[in-house]
Amino acid sequence: MSRKLAPWFIAVTAATISAVAAAPASADAIIDPAPIGPNQYFFGEVNGQARHGTIKMACFGPIYRGQHGHPLAGQTVKVVPAPSPTTSDLGFTGSAAHAIDVRFPTPRVTNVSVVVRDYAVTAPIPVSLILPCHGSGKVAFVPDPTSPTAHTATVTVSFVGQR
User: Fold this and answer.
1) CB under 8 Å to 128, separation ≥6 — which residues?
2) SS3 content of the chain, % helix, strand, coil (to 5)
3) Which residues make Cβ contacts (< 8 Å) with residue 14, sequence separation at least 6?
4) What is the mean pLDDT of residues 94-108?
5) For 51-91, what is each residue's pLDDT tens digit?
6) Residue 107: how many CB atoms within 10 A of its CB?
7) Mean residue pLDDT across the chain
8) What is the distance between the alpha carbons of residues 82 and 75, in angstroms, rounded to a whole number?
């Protein structure tokens, strides 16, 4: 290696090693799937969002007040364990729950819920649901079975029709 190239090569190599060594520290925490059980804090996610999610609706063209439709495919919900009660949005499984029943806001009683039995596992939002084409609502993450100590977590969502 020439004398002019050596300092440049050493600097680039050192920078590369530093970047690779620092990468794990900046990566998001990975949560392994684990069974949902009693006396655990949790929060829900809709399409990866815990506070304000969006559900894209298969409603095309001009949307009128009160119009309903089906969610587009490829959207998900997930239940994530929380280390301790830090916000009022957290849920608590209570003394009996081994699953979380995800319920969508709807005027129709025929909608099915999504049952999640493990943390950190995404579940599809059924395209058979009938939901508002526009507006907002709350998706409820309800401990199942419930108990007097159980607490439901909610995620505010916006329903967005396609134009």
Assistant:
1) 70, 112
2) 15, 40, 45
3) none
4) 90
5) 999 999 999 888 888 899 999 999 999 999 998 766 667 99
6) 10
7) 84
8) 22
Please identify which residue in the block is written with the tokens 């290696």: 1
Rounded CA gap, 146 and 150, in Å?
6
Which distant-in-sequence residues (6+ apart) come within 8 Å of 65 by Cβ? none
**140, two tokens:** 């409820």
Strand order in the sheet with 41-46: 91-92, 41-46, 76-81, 123-124
How far is it, in rounded angstroms, from Cα 78 to Cα 44?
A: 6
Amino acid at 149: T
Overall pTM > 0.85: no
Torsion of Cα atoms, 98 then 103 then 109 then 110, to 10°: -80
